[in-house]
Design a protein that fits this description.
With 114 residues, the chain is mainly beta. It has strands at 4-7, 10-13, 18-24, 33-39, 46-51, 57-58, 67-72, 77-82, 91-98, 102-104, 108-113. Strands 2, 4, 5, 6, 9, 10 and 11 form a seven-stranded mixed beta sheet that branches. Strands 1-3-8-7 form a four-stranded antiparallel beta sheet, with no helix packed on it.
């Protein structure tokens, strides 16, 4: 069982920045594709960013150029740097680890005020 613990959420004004952290319990972290997803009230969960074991990253157009995902395999941790935040980025942000199985964190709230 892989445990994921997110942190770094909070309230920020539009245009501001936040850095989310997802710490994992797995010692085979470097084999997982890691991702960040978000879910706003009344909306489906959506992809924010992924990074595979080789460091290849993927973003939807809605966050491309503003968000950056990175990983530190030595610390079993993945990060999401969020810049130029907009009110529509407000959501609960979830960390996901996928390999043979899929694991989710409990989520962290990000609120962007206008």
């Amino acid at each position: 069982q892989v445990q994921l613990v997110e942190s770094g959420g909070g309230v920020v004004q539009a245009g501001g920045s936040l850095r989310l952290t997802c710490a994992t319990s797995s010692n085979i972290f470097n084999t997982y594709t890691m991702g960040w997803y978000r879910q706003a009230p009344g909306k489906a969960r959506e992809l924010v960013a992924t990074i595979n074991s080789g460091g290849y990253t993927n973003y939807p157009d809605s966050v491309k150029g503003r968000f950056a995902i990175s990983r530190d395999n030595a610390k079993n941790t993945v990060y999401l740097q969020m810049n130029s935040l907009k009110p529509e980025d407000t959501a609960v942000y979830y960390c996901r680890a996928s390999s043979r199985y899929i694991y989710w964190g409990q989520g962290t709230q990000v609120t962007v005020s206008s």
